[in-house]
Backbone:
């Protein structure tokens, strides 16, 4: 599982990847502008249980 922050600023797009949710959320709060936080779960991540 991975967390991705996507930031749209002007004409550019930046993406930041994180291995844990806490770090991703802390960074997300500090970023200004149009931003999205996404959780990426790969189909072969057998450790993920819902």
Residues:
């Amino acid at each position: 599982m991975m967390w991705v922050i996507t930031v749209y600023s002007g004409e550019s797009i930046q993406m930041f990847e994180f291995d844990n949710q806490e770090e991703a959320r802390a960074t997300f709060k500090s970023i200004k502008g149009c931003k999205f936080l996404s959780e990426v779960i790969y189909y072969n991540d057998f450790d993920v249980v819902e």
Observations:
- Residues 3 and 32 are 18 Å apart (CA to CA).
